[in-house]
Amino acid sequence: MRIFKRYIPKLIAKHVSRLFSGRVYIAGRGGFEFNEGMLLVPVKPEHRHYRTVKEINQEIRRMRALEY
Fold first, then answer.
1. If exposure means fewest CB atoms within 10 Å of the residue's CB, which of 13, 20, 25, 44 is most exposed?
2. From CA 3, how far away is CA 30, in angstroms rounded?
3. 2-67 belongs to which CATH class?
4. What integer pLDDT is reported at residue 42 of this predicted model?
C-alpha cells in the first residue's frame, strides 16, 4: 500500500500503471484499490471518489496513448 500525502493525479497514475494491482491511500480522498493498471471505485463511494477515479484513469489513458 502506498500513501500519497498530496493529490497529484500524474504521479498517482504513474504508480498505478507500473504496479498493475494493489492499494493506494490519498490524503483527503481516501483509500482506493487498483487492478489491471486502472483505479477502481471503492465499495461505498462518495462523489469525490468518482471524480478522483475518473481523473486518474484519464491520466493513465493519456500516458498509454503517448507510449504508442
1. 44
2. 10
3. alpha beta
4. 94
